[in-house]
Amino acid sequence: MGIKINLDVMMAQRKTGLVELAGRIDITPANLSILKNNKAKAIRFSTLEAICKELGCQPGDIIEYCTDEDDK
């Protein structure tokens, strides 16, 4: 339901670790972990931009809208 973050999928596809990506985008590993594990309530556009730049992807590759039916 709601917004789903697929950062873990993109990181796996790019073979990038959490600590490595966190260092490259200047965010703490703890905060990136919250985002990666779909526990975040918000994301700054500057953070999203940095993630997309480092992983070579689009915001839509990371953020997905899911309806209640998608969860079934």
How would you explain this protein's 3D organization?
InterPro entries: Cro/C1-type_HTH, Lambda_DNA-bd_dom_sf. One of its GO terms (molecular function) is DNA binding. This protein is mainly alpha-helical. The protein has one domain (2-71): lambda repressor-like DNA-binding domains (434 Repressor (Amino-terminal Domain), Orthogonal Bundle). Helix content is 53%, strand content 11%. The chain contains five helices and two strands. It has helices spanning 7-13, 18-25, 29-36, 45-55, 59-62, and strands at residues 2-5, 63-66. It has a two-stranded antiparallel sheet. The longest helix is centred in the C-terminal third of the chain and has 11 residues, at 45-55. The radius of gyration is 12 Å and the shape is globular. The protein starts with a strand and ends in a 6-residue tail after the last strand. 12% of the residues are buried. The mean pLDDT is 92.
Topology (SSEs and partners):
Blueprint: E1 2-5, H1 7-13, H2 18-25, H3 29-36, H4 45-55, H5 59-62, E2 63-66
Antiparallel strand pairs: 1-2
GO molecular function, one term: DNA binding
InterPro entries: Cro/C1-type_HTH (IPR001387), Lambda_DNA-bd_dom_sf (IPR010982)
